[in-house]
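Session log. Operator J.P. requested a structure for one protein chain; no other inputs attached. Running the standard single-chain path with token output.
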Amino acid sequence: MPPANPPQARSSPLAARGGAAAVEFAIISLPFLAILFSILELGLIFMASTTIEAATVSAARQIRTGQLQQGANNNAAGFKSLVCSGMSWISASDCAANLSVDVRTFASFSAISVTPPIAGNAIDQSQLTFDDGSPCSIVVVRVFYPWTLITPVFEPGLPNLGANQRLLTTVVAFRNEDYQGPECT
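Structure written below.
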């Protein structure tokens, strides 16, 4: 009876399969992990964007109804703190340090023309204003938040604030209610 494994079969490189699974895993794991982390990153971006939008809409309502104009915090810092208070999962200190607000009034909805306040891959604070208007004013509220990307796969496609950062922007346009008298005309 011949031996089960002849010596020449054991020494053949094609017959040695001991590390094949480890090599196959190494080849597949890198693209798999890149896709997995990319999906998680996109989920975080969408969640942050949705949170910022909801907080902005809620804070802008206080401008629309005149509550902010008649309150003590009728300035950019007061409005910024209103927006930050609505973003519970982003730390208050990070929000206060990085969030930028721009509130402007316009004569009509067709006159609205705004551009992103970006200069040198950063938010140009000198282009931001705070004018919450009076009753019946047309107001545009814009909120900007720089989001730092974690996954390097997105660096070529997503950043618009330089390396590794994406500007999350929310815009709300409305006519202030006539909170001091008869209806707006």
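Operator note: The beta strands are 100-106, 118-119, 122-123, 138-148, 165-175.
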